[in-house]
Amino acid sequence: MTYGVGLLLNEGMVLLSDTRTNAGIDHISSYRKMFSFEVPGERVVAILTAGSLSVTQATIAKLQEAVEDPEASPETSILLAPTLLKVAEIVGATLWAVRDAVDQRLRTGGQFGPASMIVAGQRKGGVMRMFLIYPEGNFIEATEDTPFLQIGEHKYGKPILDRIVRPDTSLADGQKAVLLSMDSTLRSNLSVGMPLDLAVIARDECRVTQQRRFEPGDADFRRTSEAWSKALRSSFGKIPL
Amino acid sequence: MTYGVGLLLNEGMVLLSDTRTNAGIDHISSYRKMFSFEVPGERVVAILTAGSLSVTQATIAKLQEAVEDPEASPETSILLAPTLLKVAEIVGATLWAVRDAVDQRLRTGGQFGPASMIVAGQRKGGVMRMFLIYPEGNFIEATEDTPFLQIGEHKYGKPILDRIVRPDTSLADGQKAVLLSMDSTLRSNLSVGMPLDLAVIARDECRVTQQRRFEPGDADFRRTSEAWSKALRSSFGKIPL
């Protein structure tokens, strides 16, 4: 499994994903599930992936190919598309096409390799937008009312986001919130695992302004995680019933 | 959906379930999903249910009928069964038989009405035991390493249990922990709803020693829930990253 989360805040966007993939319990490895495409200052598009690795890798490769194609057009390249909505459409259509092709070959009746993605971006002069692309290629968008999107194993880490994340949450607090949301997920589900990839896209910068990989045993992550555990247990002891 | 949770602690067992059921989004109602059978001081068996209401209601009714049958035997009555393991077997077999009968009538190929249960009990001279009965009637047991069992919509409420509940957790803290676990679930999933049923079975008492229904707006539950939210937000602000 995977856990990926994106926050759409007034100050910018915060993205976090794990890297654990497994095909059966004895075939576990690490793969990057966060990708970014950018023309710094002009446009940034970050993509988080969850689900069938063969589908998500092929999708990202095809998106990359389309960007590099000498005949790239606003219809095919996510770096040329006129709007972020069009970017989400290109990603959704590519995801679906990849999946559908294998599905038809295997005759799996539309059941092959579901995968989902979070697409977050901004182009110069536009607003920040964040989409959740479903396995069928359709999508929904984050809004003020729902300032975060999750893919993969999302339930364990949702309560803390529900309580903490608001559009006016700062980028620093946003990073803390997604890391603690991930921490709850890591503790409850073995199929989500370190290292973690974190990215921040500050508003109107149109580039990934901060990027960090948390390796297993990362001192900062461990300190935050332990402080949170301790704070939870101490709060638990104090509240009334 | 449903959320039900049981803790197996050194001091006793703590059980909590919601009462929301729905058959489609416009057919929502409240049904008790916690049942107890007891000969006070001799034996207590508490059952939490999740899943298809027609299956769980019929299962509980059949267990009740078997208990009241003038020809009840240790093979059929959960109040006469020689061990708690046998109680779990009777519950599992009854659950499966009810489901299988409808499934065969509908020819749904084993897919009809999945339901699961938590069975918790003690008989005089025996130890407390707690089982999770799967939809197929097989079951697993809570142990020192895993001192809680959950049924239904269990993921949102698991992180807090993972962090707080140990076998030596007190009954008072156990009650607080299941209520906060439920609180996280209620906030994240609309299909789980008040009122809540709480029961405590103190060790070696062989009866339900404490029982309480939390109606919507219950002042104690709200106070605890609000104090927890406040503590979480305040802790969140204080921990480092």
TrEMBL record, chains A, B:
It holds the Pfam family Proteasome. InterPro entries: Ntn_hydrolases_N, Proteasome_sua/b, UCP009120_prtse. This is Peptidase.
